[in-house]
UniProtKB/TrEMBL annotation, chains A, B:
Any single Gene Ontology cellular-component annotation: cytosol
Recorded superkingdom: Bacteria
Keywords of this entry: DNA-binding, Metal-binding, Repressor, Transcription, Transcription regulation, Zinc
Cofactor note: Binds 1 zinc ion per subunit.
Binding site for Zn(2+): 104, 107, 145, 148
InterPro entries listed in its UniProt record: FUR, Fur_C, WH-like_DNA-bd_sf, WH_DNA-bd_sf
Record organism: Halioxenophilus aromaticivorans
Family: Belongs to the Fur family.
UniProt entry tagged with the keyword DNA-binding: yes
One GO MF term: zinc ion binding
Protein name in the entry: Zinc uptake transcriptional repressor Zur
Length: 153, 153
DNA sequence: GAAATTATGATACGTTATATCATCCACAGT
DNA sequence: ACTGTGGATGATATAACGTATCATAATTTC
């Protein structure tokens, strides 16, 4: 696993290639997500920026930055948890299947898994039979991680 | 499709059988969801109660009632949309597969579908391989309904 | 170096949800 | 009837998440 500064360089190059700009502020938000290794809310990130960088950006700015990072596929938005997480494939060069997220309801840890294509296809078929169009096959699943399951036991 | 008062009687009987009590207030919240035929937020329901029944319950009460109705499987909570919807099988007697929800991001309409058991199993296996436990295989999918898709076209 | 574009800040507010403590109500046992 | 008990609801305040609007700063481009 590459270290954070390598990931940042990679992300920066990727943005430049797409004609966008990974600014210092955007880098700091991304760094926060990479360091925490779990999903954070926008307000968690504001706290992080205050503590680590003595910044106090308004929510507006942080949400804008998170939107930007999502657009660049550096970060995923987890609607189910109202949180944001660094893409686990952030430093890969190849394209990926649509990510599926497992969110631990207890501790907030997030695992990103792939599922077989035919599962998604079956799902998509069911959706279309109901007269709907799937906007995004990105699933977010309520889970409990092993650590929390053991702690509870 | 049974009418609303039939559904209410059925729900009331179901609660009684489980040793719980479908009070008038709870009935009115359920009625609101049944009438609207779509997902409503807790605050939508407060508005509904004010308009239809000249009540002004605090959010606390409405959330409590929604929790109760969820426990009784009369209502489903859609975390993805922060809304609540009457269970479409509310008046059936038989057990059901775990519901899957299609949420129109434009108009908020919700379809409830079943998916084949093996799809869920496959998913569950992937989750377990990642060291997580699936708390609920209830999926909520971001969709666009046919009406909205046509309107946009 | 002025104009245009991009990025960020300030302020205020809207929406969703919960914490805490108080009150009401129905019903059981005496 | 009296009372205690548990279930149900209300009142109040506030937390957490998110957005609208307008202003300002920084960067690029000509």
């Amino acid at each position: 696993m590459p270290n954070i500064s390598q990931i940042l360089s990679h992300a920066e190059a990727s943005c430049r290639q797409r004609g966008t700009n990974l600014t210092e502020k955007r880098k700091r938000v991304l760094t926060g997500l990479l360091q925490s290794k779990k999903a954070l809310s926008a307000y968690d990130l504001i706290d992080y920026l205050r503590v680590e960088f003595d910044e106090a950006p308004p929510p507006t700015s942080v949400y804008r930055i998170l939107d930007f990072l999502s657009e660049e596929n550096l970060v995923h938005k987890l609607k189910l948890a109202n949180k944001y997480v660094a893409c686990s494939h952030i430093s890969c060069d190849h394209a990926h299947e649509v990510p599926q997220f497992l969110i631990c309801d207890d501790c907030g840890s997030v695992a990103e898994i792939g599922v077989k294509k035919n599962v998604i296809n079956t799902l998509q078929n069911s959706v279309e039979q109901a007269g709907y169009l799937l906007k995004s096959p990105q699933l977010e699943l309520h889970c409990v991680c092993q650590d929390c399951a053991e702690r509870a036991a």
